[in-house]
Amino acid sequence: MTEQFVLPGDQIDVSTVVTGAAVTLGPNVALSKSNLEQTALSPTTAGLLNVKNAESRSPVYYVESNGRRYNPQVNDYVIGIIVGAFGEYYRVSLNSFSAPVLLNQFSFPNASKKNRPRLQTGDLIYARVESVQRNMEAELSCIDPTTGKDGGFGLLTGGFVFDVKLAFARYLLFDADAKILSELVKKCKFEIAIGVNGRIWIKTDDIKTTVACSNAIRNCQTWKKEELSAKVEDTFSVLESHD
Amino acid sequence: MDTTYASSAVKALPDAPVLSILINHPPFASMERKKRPRNDRRLAELSIILKRCFEKTIMLQNYARSVIEVTVTILSFDGGLLATCCNSITLALIDAGISLYDYVTAVTVGIYDQTALLDLNSLEEADLSFITIGVVGDSDKLNLILCEDRLPLDRVERLISLGIEGCHRLKQLMNETVREVGTDLLSKKQ
Amino acid sequence: MGLDYDISTNEQEFVLEALKQNVRLDGRKLLDMRDVKISILPSEYGHVEVSLGKTRVACKVSAEIVKPYEDRPFEGIFQINTEISPMCSPFFEIGQGSSGSGSNSRQANEEVLISRMIEKAVRRSNALDIESLCIVAGSKCWAVRADLHFLNYDGNFIDASCIAVMTALLHFRKPDIEVAGEEVVVYDTNQREPVPLSILHVPICITFNFYNPNGNEENVKGELNNELILADASLIEERLSLGTMTITLNKNQEICQLLKSGGLNIDASLIMNCCLYASKLVSRLNDEIHEVLKEDSKKRRNVREEKELQVFNERES
Amino acid sequence: MSFEAESGFLEQVDGSSTFEFADTKVISSVAGPLEISRMKNEKATEAFLDINILPASGVSSTRESLLESKLLSILSKVIDVSQYPRKQIQIVIQMVSPGESQLYTVKELTAIVNSVYISLLNSGISLQTSFLATCCSISPSGDIITRPTAKQLESSRSHTISVFSITDAASDSLIYSDSEGTFTEEELLRVLDSCAEDIQSMNEKVREVVHNRVKGDYIWHI
Amino acid sequence: MDVITITQPNQPQAEINATLDDGDVEMEDEELDVDVNGGIVDSAKSKNDIVVPGELITDDPSWMRGHGTYFLNEKTYSAVAGTIIRVNKLLSVIPFKGRYSPETGDHIVGRIVEVSNKRWKVDIGAEHDAILMLGAVNLPGGVLRRKSEADELQMRAILKEGDLLNAEVQSLFQDGSASLHTRSLKYGKLRNGVFVVVPSNLIIRAKNHAHDMPGGVSIILGVNGFCWIYKTKENQVPVAGGSSTQSKAEAGFQAATHNGGYTPGMGSVSITSLEEQSSWDIYSDKNDTISNSIKETISRYKNCLLALSHCNIAINETRLAKAYDISLGYGDVNSLVNEEVEESIGEDLINSGKMRGVV
C-alpha cells in the first residue's frame, strides 16, 4: 500500500503542488489552524492520505478512513429506510441513530401532484444525495439527473439489507474488480444495490443463498484477499449442509 | 381478592397506537402501609408485563394515532396482584368498548406439598411457591406465565394445566357479568 | 424518547421467512445457542467477561464491610447494578431504567426487565447465601455488589449477564477476617488466602423468542400452533420478536424464575418443551462455567507457586 | 512505564478503545454524529457532547461528574464541534480498574483522555489536532515520577495531569493541566517538560496502535 | 381431585356453595355453560343478540365483516361486548359503551382545544379531536362572505380555546376523525347555559337534537353525549315541545326571515354594515342577563339529565321533559343531586313509561 498513514496534527506535505494550482480539500482534510503564517493542510482523522491529480493544477487531497457513520456528500448513492412523512417530504434514515435526511415526494421520475409514489414507513429506497447544506438536512432524489429517468433508483422490494463499513461499501461500488463480487457471481445469480452509506441490499432466488451472500460480503471485510475464495466456499457449504 | 380499578381513555397522538398502563399502589392498599418509592422497579416491571399481555390482544390496528391509557389503582392487596390487574384491565377495556380479540384472564396457582391450589391470598403467597398464568379466551395457549419462586421443574406442568382451567372458569364468570351488565343497559335503553 | 434502530420492512419479512425455513442469519438452527465464551480477568478476583456471539457483558464483584440493615441484623447486603450505558449501543440511554414506571420508551422497558430478571434469578432465588455475609450481628456485615458492564449489544443480554454474574460470584474471594468481640481484623490478600463466597446454587437464564408466521387472529383463535420458537436471539431477531420467555433453572432441575410476559400466545405443551430443553442447556452451561473456574484456579495456583518459588530463590541467593 | 491500548473492538458504536497503564484500565466508546435524543440538549451551532463516565463498581457519583466536566473542557477544544451543528456525539467511558484510591482522579483521567482520543480517531469524527495525556507525581524527595503507580501516588507531595496537542509527532501546545499538592513554580515547569517528553514517547506507540487498526480496517484491500 | 374455587365477590352465597360442592372442573364446564358456545347465530336469531369479545358470531362466510368484528378462516368473531347489527349482508357489532364515533350528519356539541393553521381542533369526546376548518364556519358579516387573510389572523376572535359550539359532522377522514361545519343558522358558538356530559350511547339519534323545553329553556342533546342547556332565545316564535313536526331551526329561520326583524345571536343574513357589526354577536363571550328562575330551571334540567345518565336510561327530549315533570315532585333543585333521588326519578320514569305502554 502506497498511501501514507496520517493523524490529525500531521502536516500534509504540499510542496509538490504546482504553483498557482487550486487545491481541493476532500473528505477528512482541513486547513490547519495551528499554523497561521502559511497555508497548511491537516487531516481531521486517522487514515490514509490520498492525492488525486497531484501533478495537475487542481489536485485533490483526501484521507481515506473506514468509519461506520455516514456523512452525506452530494451525488453519493445511498440506501435509505423511510421512517416517516411530513408535508411533501419523506424522512429517510441512512444509518440507525443518525439524523434522518429528506426525500421530496416529487423527486421521482414523472411525479406529479396526482401521481406520486406512496411509500410506507419501513420501505427501502435507493437514491442519490441531491443536496447537502450546512445547518440543513441533506436531501435525496430518485431521479438520475443525466437522463431524468429512474436510473435504477427507487423502491427496493424484497431481498435483504445489511450494514458494512463505509470504505468497504465504496470499494464494492467503485472497484470494478472487487473480488468478492466476482466470486459470488460464480456461486449464484443475485441482484445487488450498494449504498455508500454502508448499506447493501441483495436479492437472490431463495433465502439460503441470500443469507450466504450477505454473510460472505459482510465477513469478507475481515478476510485477506488470498483466503477469500476458500472462505466464500465455506460460507455456502455451511448453509447447504443445513438439513 | 384485591380490588383494582382500571379506566381507559383514547386520545389523539401523532404516531402509531400506544398502550400505556400505569399502576398505583397506594400505602393504604396493603397491611404494612409502606410508602413505595416513585420509581419502584417491581411496579414498573408489572406495568411492562401487563402492557405486553394486552398489546397483542387489543386490536391496536384499529386505533392508529391514538393512545389507550389504562390506570390501575390497587385498592386492597391480598395476593394475586398481577392476575387481578390483568382481569380488571380486561373488564375495563370491554367496558370502554375497545376491540379485543378475546378476554385475557389470569389466575395464580400455588403448590403446597403435593397439592396444587388456585388463587392464593397474600399469606399463602408469602409461604408457598406459586405461578401466575394468563390465557386469552378459551384456548390452551399461554399469554402470561410468571414464577418468582423456586419450584421443581416437574411440578410446573400440573400447575399450568390447573391454571388454564382456572382461567377458563374465570372467563365464564366474567362473561356472565359482562352479559348481565349489557342486558341491563339494553333493557333501559328500550 | 430515545433513539431506535431503523429496521426496514424488507429485513422484517426476510428474517421471518428465513425462520419459517429454519434458517437463521448466522447459520444456526432455531434452538441453537451461540457459543459462550467466559473469560476471567487474571488480575483480580470476581471480574469476568462473557461473550455470547458478539454480545459482550462484564461483571465485577466487590465487597466491603458495612453496617447491616436495621430490620435484618443477621444478613449481609447483596446488590446487583445493571445500568445499561450507550456504550453497548446508542439504543440504550443513561438513566432510562431508573426513571421507573413513568417512562414508557422501549429501551427503558428493556432495561427494567433485564435488571428485574437478574434480580429475581440471582438475588431472590438466594443464589448467594446472605446470612453467611453477617460478621457481627447488627453491627457489621459484608456488602457484596455485582456491577454489570454491558459492552456490546447483539441480543440476549439477560442470558449473558446471568452467566457473568454467577461466574463472577463463584470466582470472587473476599478477604479473610477474624472476629474478636466487636473488633474485626481484615487480612490483606497477601497475608492470608482470601475466602470464596457461599453460593447455594447456580441459576442460569435461558431466553426464548417467539415469532408468528400467521396473522394475529390465527394466534388467538387458530389451532395451528405453529408459532416459531428460537433460543438466544441476535440483535435483529430480538428487535423483531413478538414475545419472549426467560426461564431460570439450576442444575437440580429447579425453576428459579420464569417469565413469559404477554406477546404471542404459545401452547402450554410448547412451553413445557422449552422448559425441558432449557434444562439441558442449563446443565451444559453449568459444566462450562465450572470448567472455566477449574482452569482458572489451576492457572492461579501455578502463578502462586511460581511466585513462592521466586521468593524462595531470592531468599536463597 | 509501558501501556497497552486496543482500538475498534465494539460493534454497535462508531469508535472504541481500551487504554491501560499502571493498573489503571478504561474502555471508551464514541458514537456520532447522532440525532439529538433530547431536545433540550440541542445546540444550534455545534455538536452536543454527551459524556458519561461509569465507575468500575457502584453507581455514578459526584466523582464521575467531576471527571466528566474535566473531560468535556478538554474535548470541546479538540473535537471540531462546529462541524456537526444540532447533532450529538455520545462518549461513554467504562472504568475497568481505577488503579488509584478514591481520593485521586489523576490516573483515571489520564487513561480516559488517551482512550477517548483513540476512540475518536476510530470513529472518524473530525479533530482539530492530535492530543495525549500523561500524569506525573513529585515524590517527597523532589523526584519527578511519570505515570506513577497507586503507591507512588499516595506517597507523593503533588501530582499533575497535563494534556498536550501533538503536531508532526511532537508535543506542541499545552491543552489542559491540573495539579494538586504543593510544588514550586520551577517544579511545575519541570513537570510539564517531562510530561511533554513522555507524551512524545507515548505518541509513537499510540500511532502504531491506530495505524494497525486502520490496516485491519482495510485488510480486504491488501 | 383438587378443589378449585374462584369466588366472585358479588355472587350470592348459594352459588358459591354450588361451585364448591361441585369440585370438578370438567363437570362445571357443562353445567355453567351459559350460552358461551351456543352463540352461533343463524339469520333466525333475534335482533338484539348480545355478544362478547372472542365470541363466535357466525361461521357463514357469506357475511361481510363490519366494525367490532374480526375473522379467521370462515368464522366471524366479535371484538367487543355489544349487540349484533345486520345491514343487508354487513355484520357489525355495536358496543354497549365506548367513545363516540362520529358519523356524517351528526349534530354534536364540542369544545375548542386548539387554534391552528386555518382550523380549529375540537374535542367532541371521540378518539380523535375533530377539525373545524375556518372555511366551514359562518364568518361575521354574513354567510355570503368569503374568508380572507384577516380572518386567518383573528381566528381567536371568532372561536378560541375553551369555547363551546354545536356543529354538524361534515365528513370523516380515513382514520375516523371528523370534520365539522357550522354553516347553518342552528349551529355556532354556545352561550347562556350550562354544559353537561352524558355517555354518548345514551343519546337516542333523532331527526332533531335541539329542542325548546317547557320552562323557557332550550337544550341541545349532542349525539356525542355533550349537551347544552340554555335560556331559550328571545324574539323567537315559540315552538311547541316535542310534538311539533316543525324543527326548531326551521322555525328560527322562518322567524328570521318572515318577521323581518333580526334575531341577535342567530347569525341572520345581513348585508348592511350596521348589521355586520352586530353579527359579531354570534361569537360574543357575554351571557345575556338570565333571571334566577331560569337559572334554576336550567339546573333542574341539568340534574334530570344526570339522573337519567346515572340510571343508564337512554335520553331523548320526551323522556327529559317527563323527568323534569317528575323532578318537580322532589322539591328543591338541590335535592336532585342525591343519588337516591336520581335513582327514584329513573324508576318513576320507567314505571310511567310502562303504565302508558310507550316510551
From TrEMBL, chain A:
It is found in: Nucleus. Pfam families: KH_6 (PF15985), Rrp40_N (PF18311), RRP40_S1 (PF21262). One of its GO terms (cellular component) is nuclear exosome (RNase complex). Residues 23-69 form the Exosome complex exonuclease Rrp40 N-terminal domain. One of its GO terms (biological process) is CUT catabolic process. SUPFAM superfamilies: Eukaryotic type KH-domain (KH-domain type I), Nucleic acid-binding proteins. The keyword Chaperone does not apply. GO terms for molecular function: RNA binding. It comes from the Eukaryota. Keywords: Cytoplasm, Exosome, RNA-binding. This is DEKNAAC101709. It comes from Brettanomyces naardenensis (Yeast). The lineage of its organism: Eukaryota, Fungi, Dikarya, Ascomycota, Saccharomycotina.
TrEMBL record, chain C:
GO terms for cellular component: cytoplasmic exosome (RNase complex); nuclear exosome (RNase complex); nucleolus. The keyword Transit peptide does not apply. It is found in: Cytoplasm; Nucleus, Nucleolus. Its main location: cytoplasm. Gene3D superfamilies: GHMP Kinase, N-terminal domain. The keyword Cytoplasm applies. Residues 36-175, 202-279 form the Exoribonuclease phosphorolytic domain. Keywords: Cytoplasm, Exosome, Nucleus, RNA-binding, rRNA processing. InterPro entries: ExoRNase_PH_dom1, ExoRNase_PH_dom2, ExoRNase_PH_dom2_sf, Exosome_comp_Rrp42_subfam, PNPase/RNase_PH_dom_sf, Ribosomal_Su5_D2-typ_SF, Rrp45. One of its GO terms (molecular function) is mRNA 3'-UTR AU-rich region binding. Pfam families: RNase_PH, RNase_PH_C. GO terms for biological process: exonucleolytic trimming to generate mature 3'-end of 5.8S rRNA from tricistronic rRNA transcript (SSU-rRNA, 5.8S rRNA, LSU-rRNA); nuclear mRNA surveillance; nuclear polyadenylation-dependent rRNA catabolic process; rRNA catabolic process; TRAMP-dependent tRNA surveillance pathway; U1 snRNA 3'-end processing; U4 snRNA 3'-end processing; U5 snRNA 3'-end processing. Belongs to the RNase PH family. This is Exosome complex component RRP45. It comes from Brettanomyces naardenensis (Yeast).
Automatic annotation (TrEMBL), chain D:
GO terms for molecular function: RNA binding. Keywords: Exosome, Nucleus, rRNA processing. InterPro entries: ExoRNase_PH_dom1, ExoRNase_PH_dom2_sf, PNPase/RNase_PH_dom_sf, Ribosomal_Su5_D2-typ_SF, RNase_PH. Residues 3-125 form the Exoribonuclease phosphorolytic domain. It comes from the Eukaryota. One of its GO terms (cellular component) is nucleolus. GO terms for biological process: exonucleolytic trimming to generate mature 3'-end of 5.8S rRNA from tricistronic rRNA transcript (SSU-rRNA, 5.8S rRNA, LSU-rRNA); nuclear mRNA surveillance; poly(A)-dependent snoRNA 3'-end processing; rRNA catabolic process; TRAMP-dependent tRNA surveillance pathway; U4 snRNA 3'-end processing. This is DEKNAAC102523.
Automatic annotation (TrEMBL), chain E:
The keyword Calcium does not apply. Keywords: Exosome, Nucleus, RNA-binding, rRNA processing. Its main location: nucleus. Coiled coil: none annotated. InterPro entries: Exosome_cplx_N_dom, Exosome_RNA_bind1/RRP40/RRP4, KH_dom_type_1, KH_dom_type_1_sf, NA-bd_OB-fold, S1_RRP4. It is found in: Nucleus. Pfam families: ECR1_N, KH_6, S1_RRP4. The keyword Flavoprotein does not apply. Residues 50-87 form the Exosome complex component N-terminal domain. Belongs to the RRP4 family. This is DEKNAAC103994.
